[in-house]
């Protein structure tokens, strides 16, 4: 099983600042990596797939990079609605997908 | 608008069974693979099971293999999860999630979830 590790567990950021979230896979997943945002009481929402392609309706301040085992999600200028939990997920071998444990982005 | 609406959750004793359903609308259901993903309240996400558009290909997480069965009814645009021999650690919100293709593996649309609580 591929293990996904996210860091940090919690990121404290001021509105308007940049946030950088990391995700590491225990073995190569190529670019088969997705990112999700989840707010309290809501289902997760797809942000990014293919490591760097924004999903429909996702603002340009969200960007993704990486391949193989190291991935990054960057939020260039945090807005109030961006404070949430972010999960990465590998989908290198259908249908088995594994998630990271999540990074909570909170107001500093 | 794509909509996924789960039903069938509730409280059940360990060892009993429960059947979850997901009603899909707003897209051509039999063009897409579908999945179940769960989340223990306050914890992270766990993929549970996935099924291809034709039901030919199915996969399960090790934690539920042999106890859960995923199925779909394309004529009625519904997805199901039969959960047998339930355990306390199966307590979670269960989300129905749409795959963006036949065999892609990420989830571009999610339902709001249904809560399954297993306790004596």
Task: Please sum up the structure shown.
Chain A is mostly beta strands. Chain A has no helices and 11 strands. In chain B, strands 2, 4, 5, 6, 9, 10 and 11 form a 7-stranded mixed sheet that branches. Chain B has a 4-stranded antiparallel sheet with strand order 1-3-8-7, with no helix packed on it.
**Percent in helix of chain A:** under 10%
Q: Output the number of helix runs of chain B.
A: 0
**What order do the SSEs of chain A take from the amino end to the carboxyl end, as H and E?**
EEEEEEEEEEE
Total E-strand runs of chain B: 11
| Outline of chain A | globular
State mean pLDDT of chain A (0 to 100 scale): 96
* Biggest sheet overview of chain B: 7 strands, mixed
Distance between the termini of chain B: 40 Å
Order of helices and strands of chain B: EEEEEEEEEEE
**Class by SSE composition of chain A:** mainly beta
- Kindly report the average pLDDT value of chain B: 96
User: What are the segments of chain B in which pLDDT stays under 50 over at least 5 consecutive residues?
Assistant: none
Structural class of chain B: mainly beta
What does this entry look like structurally?
The complex is a heterodimer of chains A (108) and B (120). Helix content of chain A is 0%, strand content 54%. Chain A has strands at 4-7, 10-13, 19-25, 33-38, 45-49, 53-54, 62-67, 70-75, 85-93, 96-99, 103-107. In chain A, the strands form two sheets. In chain A, strands 2, 4, 5, 6, 9, 10 and 11 form a seven-stranded mixed sheet that branches. Chain A has a four-stranded antiparallel sheet with strand order 1-3-8-7, with no helix packed on it. With 120 residues, chain B is an all-beta fold. Chain B contains no helices and eleven strands. In chain B, strands 2, 4, 5, 6, 9, 10 and 11 form a seven-stranded mixed sheet that branches. In chain B, a hairpin with a 5-residue loop joins strand 4 (34-39) and strand 5 (45-51). Chain B is globular. Chain B starts with a strand and ends with a strand. The A-B interface holds A 1, 32, 34, 36, 42-46, 49, 55, 87, 89, 91-102 and B 33, 35, 44-47, 49-52, 57-59, 61-62, 95, 99-100, 103-113.
